[in-house]
Amino acid sequence: MAKIQCDVCFRHCRLEEGQTGFCRARSCRNGRIEAANYGRITSAALDPVEKKPLRRYKPGRKVLSIGSYGCNLRCPFCQNSDISWSDVVEFYSETPDSFEYISPERIAGTAAELVEQGNIGVAFTYNEPLTGYEYVRDTARLVKEIGLDNVLVTNGTASLEVFNEISPFIDAMNIDLKAFTDGFYRDLVKGDLNMVKDFIREAVKTCHVELTTLIIPGENDSEDEIRNLSGWIAGLEGKVPGNEIPLHITRFFPRFHMTDKAATPVETIYRLADAARENLKYVYEGNV
Fold first, then answer.
1. What HEC string does 93-140 produce?
2. How far is CA 32 from the centre of its chain?
3. Is the peptide bond before 53 cis (omega within 30 degrees of 0)?
4. pLDDT at 104
5. pLDDT 10s digits, 46-96
6. In this prediction, what percent of the chain has a pLDDT beyond 90?
7. In 3D, which of 177, 128, 101, 148 has the Cα closest to residue 140?
8. Percent of the chain at pLDDT above 70?
9. How many domains does the chain have?
């Protein structure tokens, strides 16, 4: 049986008819790769913009935040494991049609109805939105047409072809830059640092971007790594100078498959934030 290749991320899953990829969100159907999670919304809330987190994009406003299921990383500390990767997601991927389909038109209409409550538009978040980038693209296009904004919260593990599909409609992104070593990405979260860096390089050219690094004790908490990470950000060329790209240095708490780790000491967050400020103008401590 012929296999069809998915090119959303570095994995390039090759799937036979009926098979689902590593992300548990993309499937081979009728001889083509499709987003099985298209329109299958598992989470929705009207959140403060700051919760994305975005600190320098329309502060004090709210955004209709929606998520589906599936993720192409395997972070053992995932805070949304029930919709990103877990046994529950196996169930989602096997029975997508059992969940209510919510069309892009309905999402855009709801976003418009919520404007009077301070809503600026739609945020694609909670799971990894780009496992179903087609839904992001189609919904975001409609949201832009009615004069509202689109926010993307992503791990940045997507090809530039996917980026080009969604970028014309995205106004702001928060992108996880989880660490700055290949080993962390390869061994701990099963990802690809170079793909994330490429995604960030393009994103800063097209929209407002803020980055988030979750600090995990013993994994990515050295001052040298944060100096390297923040120095790389400062060298980016985009809509603003690289040293004006905001970075969120965030505290880890034990969760999911990483309950044996202690929470990051508060003093570590402040120390690393100070190190990042050697290169960056806007550094924010999170979860402290």
1. HHCHHHCCECCHHHHHHHHHHCHHHCEEEEEECCCCHHHHHHHHHHHH
2. 25
3. yes
4. 98
5. 999 999 999 999 999 999 999 999 999 999 999 888 887 756 556 666 666
6. 90
7. 148
8. 95
9. 1
The Cα–Cα gap between 155 and 87 comes to: 21
Distances (CA, A) of 11 to 8, 98, 217: 8, 28, 28
Residue 261 belongs to a domain: yes
Give residue 114's domain range: 38-286
The tens digit of pLDDT for each residue in 103-113 reads: 999 999 999 99
Residue 285 pLDDT greater than 90, yes or no? yes
Instruction: Show the tokens assigned to 107.
Output: 């999402």
Q: Where does the pLDDT of residue 100 fall: very low under 50, low under 70, confident under 90, or very high at 90 and above?
A: confident
CATH number for the domain spanning 63: value is 3.20.20.70
Q: Is residue 148 part of a domain?
A: yes
**DSSP string computed for 222-233:** -HHHHHHHHHHH
6 assigned to some structural domain: no
Q: Is residue 226 part of a domain?
A: yes
| Alpha-carbon gap, residue 86 to 94, rounded angstroms | 13
120 has pLDDT over 80 = yes
How many whole angstroms separate alpha carbon 169 and alpha carbon 137? 7
| Residue range 193-198: mean pLDDT, rounded | 98
Average pLDDT, the chain: 95
The HSE-up count of residue 86 (CA atoms within 13 Å, CB side) is 14
Kindly report the backbone phi and psi dihedral angles of residue 50, in degrees, each rounded to the nearest multiple of 5, phi listed first.
-60, -20
Query: In the numeric block, which tokens belong to residue 5?
Result: 């290749």
3-state secondary structure of 23: coil
Query: Which candidate, 26, 112, 113, places its Cα nearest to that of 71?
Result: 26
Integer Cα distance of 155 and 127 in angstroms: 10
